Amino acid sequence: MGLINLLFRDPFSFLLLVIPLLYSVIIHEVAHGWVAERMGDPTARYLGRLTLNPVRHIDPVGTIMLFIFGFGWAKPVPVNYNNFRDLRKGLIFVSAAGITANICLAFLSLLALKLWAPFGVAGTVLRILAQINIMLAAFNLIPIPPLDGSKILMGFAPREVQGWLEKIEPYGFFIVLGLLWLGALDPLISFLQWIILEIIGLVIS
Fold first, then answer.
1. Active site annotation includes 29
2. Closest CA to 14 of 54, 130, 105, 22
3. Parent domain of 44
């Protein structure tokens, strides 16, 4: 099932998929920590999380989910919002940082495909990298806690909406998994992927 089957059936294809996926998730988290530091919170740096070393970011449950279902996550970079010079801006910018990093990786991959037009392994890796990062960006834009989209929404929303999002956050992970299992998020994810691709396409063209 999932990547485990692929590992035994085709180890080379497994590596082509899992390495870009792993580092796309890691770069997403590092981006959060890097922007948080610029906004006044050095927590991620103090805890050694501003690194691309996968050992510092691997989450056991997220890794198991990745291998079984092809969907996983890294340990969230710790952020102390009390350190932000401007809480509302910090919430928006830090939450958007991971999504922006994924969109930039997708853009660079598609740009390289357009300009370089590589064949073989290089072309395959670039296509996989673009697909993975567009998917990650779209998924994280969903405004359900604990996803980044909910934090961006909180940064713009009135206090009443912020309070409601804070109340459901302890259950958000299960809400997201349930909606994914039911396929209820598929149309939204597809729509967000389409928007991201359109924006990248406009810039590249």
1. yes
2. 22
3. 2-204
Q: Which residues pair with 76 in a beta bridge?
A: none
Q: What is the pLDDT of residues 126-183, one digit of tens each?
A: 998 999 999 999 999 999 998 999 999 999 988 888 899 999 999 988 999 899 889 9
Please say whether the beta carbons of 30 and 139 come within 8 A. no
Beta-carbon-side half-sphere exposure of residue 15 (alpha carbons within 13 Å): 4
Residue (of 153, 151, 147) closest to 81 by Cα position: 151
If one counts the domains in the chain, the total is: 1
Kindly report the backbone phi and psi dihedral angles of residue 49, in degrees, each rounded to the nearest multiple of 5, phi listed first: -100, -5
**71, 70, 75, 74: which is closest to 7 by C-alpha?**
70
Could you tell me how many residues make up the chain? 205
Query: Catalytic pick from 29, 166, 169, 198?
Result: 29
CA distance 68 to 74: 15
